[in-house]
Design goal:
Blueprint (H helix, E strand, L loop, with lengths): L6 H6 L3 E5 L2 E6 L3 H10 L2 E4 L4 E6 L3 H8 L12 E7 L5 E11 L3 E6 L4 H10 L6 E4 L4 E7 L3 H5 L15 E6 L2 E7 L8 E7 L4 H13 L5 E3 L1 H10 L33 H10 L3 E8 L10 E3 L5 E11 L4 E9 L8 E6 L2 E8 L5
Parallel strand pairs: 3-13
Antiparallel strand pairs: 1-2, 3-9, 4-7, 4-8, 5-6, 6-7, 9-12, 10-11, 11-12, 14-17, 14-19, 15-16, 15-18, 16-17, 18-19
Length: about 350
């Protein structure tokens, strides 16, 4: 297993550690419900340094991004970011990602999922037919997500630029706790506000920044947060997790990601998606909440009242903010209307649920 620059910090804090995407990562510290509440109500710090980052440079960098991603990256300029995906050749999704425009038409950072770093690098590389300069900086990049309604207020004294008014899906370069060239972005995965900070792991920067955040945040009750609460927080918002809710077999149109699928440009699988949009999808990713007692889990079957299988759960949990169980899953389009009753097959018992519009909070 790989370690992040913060692994020793997690162990010293008593985190429950486990392997995730090949990394030794903290799953929880004080407990998922407690950590979840800390982020929803105050602020918490996630180590997400396992995520991948690629830099694409050169006069054809934007052209390459346009060809391999579904969204229209020409619409973002310096200091802006964009959620997108890499469609594969069969109408599925190689990965979802965030595109950061460092310098319009010249320099971009792609932030991708930890489990897909090699896969994504190979995918982009095979489409790089025009000599775009590519750098995989994943192993040298630290990434901390400081999330929650009080996160920017707590961090502001550490930063030499205004981050309290950073608009959603924008970023800035700043000096953070004395460390130069830190990217501070507002592209959070929790729906609770806050920022993410990217910086190079050199000259003790990881220790400096981690220690500064917790020293400054101590009087405000800031807490370290594990990946367990990250999952419950994102699920309450209805955000997709690659490998669960989207993968190589799911279309962005099926997953409700038509808004990042732009037909004003050419990109991989565009003809497939155009036909799919015209014909209509046969299944949809929906949100649901449990009516009867039971917790839905990944791969549980979704059935109708007669016990016919109509879909499958992709994510599910007991939502700490709601006091009820919720989930995401694909169902046949004919059963996808909001307020439709469905049943989750939990250990051979049909447990009643209702389709609702995400986010759940």
């Amino acid at each position: 297993m790989k370690n992040t620059p913060f692994t020793s910090k997690h162990i010293a804090l008593g985190a429950k550690m486990a392997e995730f995407a090949g990394y030794n990562m903290p799953i929880s510290y004080s407990g998922i419900n407690d950590e979840h509440a800390a982020v929803r109500k105050n602020a918490g710090v996630f180590d997400v340094s396992h995520m991948g980052e690629f830099i694409l440079k050169g006069e054809n960098a934007l052209d390459l991004i346009q060809r391999v991603t579904s969204n229209d990256a020409s619409k973002i300029t310096n200091g802006q970011a964009q959620y997108s995906c890499f469609p594969n050749n069969e109408g599925g999704i190689v990965d979802d990602l965030i595109v950061y425009c460092l310098e319009f038409d010249k320099s971009y950072m792609l932030v991708i999922n930890a489990s897909n770093i090699v896969k994504d690098w190979n995918w982009v590389s095979q489409h790089n037919t025009k000599g775009v300069e590519m750098h995989n900086i994943s192993d040298n990049t630290c990434l901390l997500a400081i999330q929650g309604p009080n996160a920017t207020k707590i961090l502001q004294p550490l930063v030499d630029t205004d981050i309290m008014n950073l608009k959603y899906y924008t970023f800035t370069r700043a000096k953070f706790a004395g460390v130069e060239n830190v990217i501070v972005s507002a592209t959070g995965y929790t729906g609770a506000g806050g920022v993410e900070i990217y910086f190079e792991d050199k000259d003790g920067a990881a220790d400096t920044i981690w220690d500064a955040i917790f020293e400054t945040g101590a009087s405000h009750g800031i807490k370290p947060i594990g990946l367990g609460a990250r999952d419950t927080l994102r699920l309450e918002m209805g955000y997709c997790l690659y490998g669960n809710d989207i993968d190589d077999t799911t279309s962005p149109l099926e997953a409700g990601l038509g808004w990042i699928t732009k037909f004003t440009k050419d990109f991989t699988s565009k003809p497939f998606f155009e036909k799919q949009k015209a014909a209509g999808v046969t299944r949809k990713l929906v949100g649901f909440e449990m009516i009867d007692r039971g917790i839905p889990r990944h791969d549980y079957l979704i059935k109708d009242a007669e016990g016919n299988t109509i879909g499958k759960v992709t994510s599910g949990t007991q939502a700490p903010s709601l006091g009820k169980a919720v989930g995401l899953g694909y169902v046949a389009t004919s059963h996808a209307a909001v307020d439709s009753e469905i049943y989750i097959d939990i250990r051979n018992t049909l447990v009643k649920a209702k389709i609702v519009k995400a986010p759940f909070v």
